[in-house]
Write a structure and sequence with these properties.
Layout (H helix, E strand, L loop, with lengths): L8 H12 L29 H16 L4 H8 L2 E2 L7 E2 L4 H13 L3 E11 L2 E11 L1 H13 L1 H7 L7
Antiparallel strand pairs: 1-2, 3-4
Amino acid sequence: MTTYYDIPADLLIPALAEKLSTVKEIEQPNWSDYVKTGADRERPPTQENWWTIRAASILRKVARQGPIGVTSLAQDYGGSVNNGAGPNTPGVASRHIIRTALQQLESAGLVELVSTKEIESVDGKQQLYSGRKVTSHGQKLLDEVAHSCRDVANEMYPGLAKY
């Protein structure tokens, strides 16, 4: 069986985004038409389905690197900030977009929080989390989409046939 590790991201993510567009929990918020995807960007995205593409990409990253948090994902999706005459510095992506997409994926049952320990604080007991990981339902969805992309991947990259 083909897994999402076997299919390149440039083939898997658009197919996964198309599949996620049918999930009712994952929908583009109203405010997303007016936001940039990071501080290093100059304009908002121009694609119509950029929200589902980002959600699909986040789902793939969580599956490959999980448990992973919002800050690590923001650093992965960031670019470099142009500081004029000074050297460029790393820029981070919008944490609000990533957090909202993760919450939508979590409500769809594709991603879940990983708890580490419970601590005692001034406000009482608090649960600490190490990030999010993909659920078995999310794993199944990723593998189904990867299996459906296998023929196209074999045509584009003949070396993948041995996997």
